[in-house]
Amino acid sequence: MASVKPQEFFSSIEKGPLAPVYLLTGEEGYFIDRALAKILTRALEGVAKDFNLDVFYGKDAKADDIVSQASTLPMMSERRVVVVKEADRLKGTEHLLAYLASPAPETVMILVAEGAEKPKEAALTKPMSKSCVFVHFYPPFESEVPRWIKQLARESGYTVDDDAAAYLRDTLGGNLALVEAELNKLFNFLGDRKTITPDDVRESVGDFGMPLVFDLMDAVAEKRTGAALEVLSRLLTDKENNPIMLVGMFAAHWRRLLAAKEMADAGDGPEKLEKAFRLNFRNKKAFLGQVARARATELRAAFRSFAKADGALKGSALPQRLVMERLILELSGAGGF
C-alpha cells in the first residue's frame, strides 16, 4: 500500500495509471470531496456509467455485495468503478479485507471514510496490497494555506502572488471551500488577466466584516454567551454576511486552536506558537488565552456542532438565525471549552 500526502496526491492524480483501490480518510471533508471528484473524473472517462458505476453507503451496505460488484467484469467498458462512502461503518468486512489484498485489476474501488477513528482506518489499510493508495487528508496548517491557494488558482490557469495568497489566507482563514468560491469570483473579476494581486483580492473579496467576526469568535471561545449572541445579531443584520460562510470561519478558527493546543500540550511555548500561527499584537493575547483555556477533546467535539449547523443551513427549514444561535450556545457551553 502506498501512503500518499495530500499535496502529492493532487499533483499526481491527473497522470499515470489509476490504482485499483483508493482509501480517502481524514478530518478535511473539502479535500476528500475534491479527491473523490478527481478520481471519478479520470476513472469514468470512456466508461458506460449506467452499467459500471456503483455507489454504496457503509451504514446500509453489505460488504459481500460490494465485493461482488467489484469482482464483476465491466460491461461494454474497460473499467468498473465502485464507490463506498462511510466505509468505516461497514460490518462483516472479512471478504472486503481479503479483496483489498488482491483487488480486481479491471475495477477502481474508492473507499471514503471521513473522520474515521484510527483503529478503523488501520483495519482498512493493513490488508491493502502494494498497488493500493491511501491518503489521509488533514486540515491545512496556517503555513500551508497559501500553497493550496496557489494550486487552486493554477489549476484554473491563474497565478496568485505571495502577498495576495497571504491576504486571502488572513481574510478567509483555512476554509478552502470558501477560498475556492472566492477565487472563482476573482477569476470573473479579472477578465483576461491571469495574475491575482492583493488589490484584486481587496476589491473583490473585501473584508467580510472581519472585526465583528473576530469579536464573535473571541466571545464564543471565552464563553461570553450573551456578548456572542449580541455580535451575531449585528452580523446577521447585514445580508452580505452569509451564515454558511460564518460557520466555515468558525471551523477554520477552531482548527487553528486545536493545532495550537496540540503544540502546547507537546511542550511548545508561547514564542513558538506566536511564530507558527503568525500572531500579532492585536490577536496574540486573545488567541494564546483561548489555547490555554481550551481542552483538546472539546475542541474536537465542536466540529460535530459545525457539521450539524452546516447541514441545517443548507437543508433544513429552520430559520438561519435560529441555527446560528443554537451553534453559539453549543460552542460557548457544552460544545465550547
SSE blueprint and pairings:
Elements: E1 2-4, H1 6-12, E2 21-26, H2 29-43, H3 49-52, E3 53-57, H4 63-71, E4 80-85, H5 94-101, E5 107-114, H6 118-125, E6 133-137, H7 145-155, E7 159-160, H8 162-172, H9 176-190, E8 195-196, H10 198-204, H11 210-221, H12 225-236, H13 243-265, H14 270-276, H15 284-293, H16 296-315, H17 320-332
Parallel strand pairs: 1-6, 2-5, 2-6, 3-4, 4-5, 7-8
Helix pairs in contact: 4-5, 7-8, 7-9, 8-10, 11-12, 12-17, 13-15, 13-16, 16-17
Description:
This protein is α/β, with parallel strands linked by helices. Helices cover 57% and strands 11% of the residues. The protein has 3 domains: 2-137, P-loop containing nucleotide triphosphate hydrolases (Rossmann fold, 3-Layer(aba) Sandwich); 142-204, Helicase, Ruva Protein, domain 3; 210-332, Up-down Bundle (Zinc Finger, Delta Prime, domain 3), CATH 1.20.272. The chain has 17 helices and 8 strands. It has a 6-stranded parallel β-sheet, sandwiched between helices. The model has no long low-confidence stretch (mean pLDDT 87).
- Percent of residues in beta strands: 5-15%
What's the CATH topology name of the largest domain?
Answer: Rossmann fold
The largest beta-sheet arranges its strands as 1-6-2-5-4-3
How many discrete structural domains? 3
Residue share in helix: 55-70%
User: Total number of β-strand segments?
Assistant: 8
Main sheet attributes: strand count, strand direction, barrel closure: 6 strands, parallel
Number of helices: 17
**SSE pattern, N- to C-terminal:** EHEHHEHEHEHEHEHHEHHHHHHHH
Second rung of CATH, namely the architecture of the largest domain? 3-Layer(aba) Sandwich
Structural class of the secondary elements? Answer: alpha/beta
Low-pLDDT ranges: none
Rounded mean pLDDT is 87
CATH class of the largest domain: Alpha Beta
The CATH homologous superfamily of the largest domain corresponds to: P-loop containing nucleotide triphosphate hydrolases
Alpha-carbon distance between the two ends: 39 Å
- Taking Cα atoms only, what radius of gyration do you get, to the nearest Å? 22 Å
Using the alpha-carbon principal axes, give the shape.
globular
